[in-house]
Write a structure and sequence with these properties.
About 35% of the residues lie in helices and about 25% in strands. The protein is an alpha+beta fold.
Length: about 110
């Protein structure tokens, strides 16, 4: 089903985090990172995973500034990868909030 993070995505104000939804679950994580990491200001990426470690098909990317994130959002939102359309919107949670909520977050994003 569609989770609460996905449902709340449109309400998020502009910030330096982007939610990247719509990837196939078997899409290589390196390719997800490559989708955003070449843009100016890229800092880190967090993959959403099932409890067994498999990729859920969405991720969160963080940038140095709101402006950098906005540029990437404007360029990439609606991009098609095969039959999939990628939805890029501001993340409902900042990187700092994610680090507070998920202790493993910092360790995964060095």
């Amino acid at each position: 089903g569609i989770n609460a993070e996905y449902m709340g995505r449109d309400a998020a104000p502009p910030n330096n985090g982007l939610a990247l939804f719509g990837f196939p679950e078997d899409y290589p994580e390196e390719e997800v990172k490559a989708f955003v990491s070449n843009y100016p200001g890229f800092k880190s990426i967090k993959y959403a995973r099932y409890s067994d470690g498999r990729f859920k098909g969405y991720a969160f990317a963080y940038f140095e500034t709101v402006e950098a994130a906005t540029d990437v959002r404007n360029q990439l939102n609606g991009t098609r990868i095969g039959n999939y359309q990628i939805d890029v919107n501001y993340s409902a949670r900042s990187r700092e909030e994610c680090m507070a909520i998920y202790p493993s977050f910092a360790a995964e994003n060095n």
